[in-house]
């Protein structure tokens, strides 16, 4: 009897981009209306098959098989080869460690900030500084149309993040189903339903390819004109790219509270090339008087560290930090939050100690 292992679905032809195509911007005579065509590539799967997993075991075929103790040597060898192939798929292509990494990456993407970058369509090396060109092109772009494009980009970003979560759930369910089949001690149903197992493996491979393609930001296409008719002899050709910035998070080890002030530190996973502006917020939790309600504020900061003074002792404060708003910001669903409690005031009166010797200091503040 011929043997065969699980098939892998080759999906090299799929090209799932982060955003659905909407065509080029800046073409003379292009339609002025707004249209949006959401397409999710790499997801042409039988969803009913994935969401409602079929029974791998054809009961009628299983009943017609011989007793498991009476398998022919060739059938037993085929059974062992297929079990080995399935186990290899579950320990490499769909291993628990790999799925945990994908879950962590998805959670990180949900905390990122998303921006639109405007770049020239064709930029020859050495012509001009590409960091200066977008500033000049912003003067030619219709502000109202650009704001509408940002809303379209935000909607598509939300859809992509939801799809990533759904694809991960399909991978988790698929691994649980195949793992249960692998743990079955009866070889008859395993051999009888191997055709369904192969199709399930191909489906899960397609889901994995779709997931990996969606985690990579890419080009954002448009069908309308962003550049208004300014009477220029030649309207510049531009392209839009979606860029992702890692979330800003507090350094929980270095951020500390003292008696009436706090020292805060934060960082980004990937350090930016240029300095960034941040927005720091603080608020007293559970204020007891009208005056205590004023213990809050918004502070613009141009560094990754800041000290807030004149706080109340022995009280809890909440702090949040994020990047300052930018004209090109598309979507920012998350900001980090930290709660710290200031130290209580030292008790009044002399510190008890041994006669003739001063007692130890009550509080030691960090020197700056």
From TrEMBL:
List residues of the Fibronectin type-III domain: 247-345
**Where is the stretch described as Disordered?**
339-368
Indicate, by first and last residue, each region the UniProt record lists as having compositional bias (Pro residues).
347-361
Segments spanning the bilayer are none
Entries under PROSITE patterns matching the protein: FN3
Question: Which domain of life does the UniProt lineage start with?
Answer: Eukaryota
Q: Which InterPro entries match?
A: DUF5581_C, DUF5581_N, FN3_dom, FN3_sf, FNDC11
Name under which the protein is recorded: Fibronectin type III domain-containing protein 11
Which organism does this sequence originate in? Puma concolor (Mountain lion)
